[in-house]
Design goal:
Maltoporin, Chain A; mainly beta; globular; five-stranded mixed β-sheet; 28-stranded antiparallel β-sheet; 65% strand
């Protein structure tokens, strides 16, 4: 794994050095801090949606955001649409961008924070997708069929309809999506072994994982622009059901049959409404406000059979959120801008968990709890452009939150934090940027960590932790970006985190664990993202893309007192992609896939490792027929996706106990096929 990362890094470094000797002919128009890519820049690649365009934009690392984060700034990604942040959480940013057809895109702007005249939500580089103006309507329909070779259902697919209307000052978009397909994470089959100290407890055999996901969601959004006032509204409704089936057909060391069955049905319903308001108070002063209200219901019915022992679990979670954000920007002069703002978020989670083992009820810590949080933040920042190629941003935020729990735990807490931030951007020349960020960050508490959460697919009953406090970190980040060969770029980023109240698994109650505060911790993260054409190397129309992320962290184990990595802080993940544009045949072919994934988790009575071997690849072919019809044929898992899960189990707990069993499960996901048709009217 490390050798792969090293090879990719070395290759990128060689290309960067080589590019320094080449003439730099940028394919995009450049202003200070803003690079504009017209739609024609992407046309030969036959893109279908805005998401395709984002993936092919050099000098940009896409951040999808995190819709599970409360509030607006913390959840945002780094892509705007027509200069507006999508005020939506029910759909992911990828889903929002996928719903925008390429045919309506005018241009894409890569904008440095110091050059932006809008709220960048703390991001140093953002992309703005600009759609075409003028009166025009576009209707797009899409249907995809998937053929599976390792799933009992055999066939799956998706259907979607997207409508877009632009008429002078008014824009309207709507989409309806239905999905009925295999859930990719972990689906497959393979060998299973449980090697126990007591040979009579050992097991071996094969298991089969058959997961299925059904969902439907509808979104409508629109905005109207007056001379100095702009109002946007959006509405989203989403419903999904996830079916997880696990079947283990094992034998004991003595040859006796031993079955393990997991059957889980998990439902999720979301309703969301949002609004965005922009007011031009004067030529150099602007006010922007955002509002969001969200209601979500999540529940599951779980069944686990291990040998002759049966476990049942039912859980219901109801979450409501109301968030608002306002920011006032004042451009005092060309070199200096000021911003003042505030954000408030009000959240409430009601949870009820019921578990029975062998027909006997089992009480978990915090299995019936209501959590309420009111959080307020005020902030101010100054942007100073010392020179056309050098800028600084200094800011200070104050956060206050009040947390209250009722039910199994009754307590209230208040937290106050000062959060300074400093960034600097230096454009060494027209193709090289260096960025620095120093910031204090206060993490958000995962509401679900307060409540008990049975996870029968892992055979784990996790407690809730009423004594959680936010994770605090001092973050130091250095980023180097180099653009070359017109369409190429390489971005290397290192971020160092110094944590207080670091989150990990900690003991709760008798024999249980939960997410909790584990004291101080340190973490480092390297990201290398490359995007470069292979034309200068003789392969006309081909483009290579990659992204590799390597983590390292240290924390004191709450159970053993030893130093180790943080749980759930992935140690490595990587992605590669290759596209080849063939305009003569109106086609693009490509391959992409993950080159690795590794994660470790340390719990009260087990150590778990999940690892994917490199190169589960997908290959695809896009073909357009005229301007209105496109077809994609894709072979997924052209090289098999292999995943290994190893659990070292400690019968008396890891705190001084010994390993009593080692469980190993190897999953291989078979090849499957997709045919997609997309028609524009």
């Amino acid at each position: 794994m490390d050798s792969i990362t090293a090879k990719i890094g070395a290759l990128a470094a060689q290309l960067i050095l080589a590019s320094a000797c080449l003439s730099q002919e940028q394919a995009a128009a450049e202003n200070t801090g803003i690079t504009v890519f017209p739609a024609s820049f992407y046309a030969d690649g036959e893109p279908v949606s805005a998401m395709d365009v984002i993936n092919r934009t050099p000098g940009f690392i896409f951040e999808r955001g995190n819709n599970d984060m409360r509030g607006l700034e913390s959840a945002a990604g780094n892509v705007l649409i027509d200069g507006r942040w999508p005020t939506i959480k029910a759909n992911t940013l990828q889903e929002v961008l996928t719903a925008i057809p390429f045919a309506v895109i005018e241009q894409v702007e890569v904008i440095r924070a110091d050059a932006a005249d809008f709220d960048t939500m703390g991001r140093q580089v953002v992309v703005n997708v600009v759609r075409k103006a003028g009166g025009k309507s576009t209707l797009i329909t899409e249907a995809a069929v998937k053929k599976y070779t390792d799933n009992d259902r055999g066939l799956g697919g998706t259907a979607r309809a997207e409508y877009s209307r632009s008429s002078g000052r008014f824009n309207f978009d709507a989409s309806l999506v239905y999905e009925n397909e295999q859930f990719e994470w972990g689906t497959g089959e393979g060998p299973y072994t449980l090697t126990a100290v007591d040979p009579e407890s050992s097991l071996s055999g094969r298991f089969d994982i058959d997961d299925w996901d059904r969902s439907v969601h509808a979104t409508a959004s629109g905005n109207y622009a007056w001379d100095r006032f702009d109002l946007g509204l959006n509405l989203t409704v989403k419903s999904s059901t996830l079916l997880l089936d696990r079947l283990g057909d094992y034998e004991t060391a003595g040859g006796e049959p031993y079955a393990q069955v997991v059957d889980i049905e998990r439902g999720n319903d979301v309703f969301e409404v949002g609004s965005d308001i922009a007011i031009n108070l004067a030529g150099n002063r602007r006010l922007n406000a955002k509002l969001l209200h969200r209601m979500e219901s999540l529940g599951s019915d779980s069944y686990l059979q291990v040998g002759s022992l049966e476990t049942l679990a039912d859980d219901d979670f109801d979450w409501t959120e109301t968030a608002a954000r306002a920011i006032y920007r004042w451009d005092l002069s060309a070199p200096l801008s000021l911003e003042f703002g505030a954000e408030a978020a009000f959240n409430e989670l009601d949870s009820l968990v019921e578990v029975s083992v062998g027909d006997a009820p089992l009480e978990l810590p915090n299995d019936n709890v209501t959590v309420q949080e009111d959080r307020y933040q005020a902030f101010a920042k100054a942007i100073f452009r010392a020179r056309p190629n050098l800028s600084f941003e200094a800011g200070l935020a104050f956060e206050h939150s009040a947390l209250e729990q009722r039910g199994d735990a009754n307590l209230s807490k208040h937290f106050d934090y000062l959060k300074p931030r400093l960034t600097a951007t230096w454009s060494i020349n027209s193709v090289t940027d260096v960025r620095l960020r120093v910031e204090k960050v206060v993490g958000q508490l995962d509401f679900y960590s307060f409540a008990a959460s049975p996870n029968l697919e892992w055979d784990i009953l996790a407690a809730g932790n009423a004594d959680l406090e936010p994770e605090e970190s001092a973050e130091y980040e250095l980023q180097f970006e180099r653009r070359f060969w017109g369409r190429g770029s390489a971005i290397l980023t290192y971020t160092r985190y110094q944590y207080d109240n670091a989150l990990d698994f900690v003991p709760v109650g008798l024999g249980f664990d939960a997410r909790g505060n584990a004291g101080s911790a340190a973490r480092g993260r390297w990201i290398l993202a490359t995007n470069f054409p292979l034309d200068p190397l003789g392969w006309k129309g081909a483009t290579w893309r990659s992204r590799t992320v390597h983590f390292d962290s240290r924390v004191t184990d709450p159970f053993t007192g030893e130093s180790r990595r943080q749980s759930r802080r992935d140690s490595f993940v990587g992605f590669i992609g290759l596209t080849w544009e063939l305009p003569r045949w109106n086609s693009v072919v490509g391959l992409d896939g993950f080159i690795g994934f590794q994660e470790r988790v340390w719990r009260i009575s087990e150590e778990r490792l999940i690892r994917e071997k490199p190169l589960p690849m997908n290959i695809w072919w896009d073909r357009t027929f005229g301007e209105d019809l496109s077809v994609r044929f894709e072979i997924m898992n052209f090289t098999p996706a292999r995943r290994t899960r190893i659990r070292e189990i400690y019968g008396d707990g890891r705190a001084g106990g010994a390993i009593t069993a080692v469980e190993e499960r190897k999953t291989e996901q078979a090849m499957h096929f997709m045919l997609r048709l997309r028609k524009r009217f």
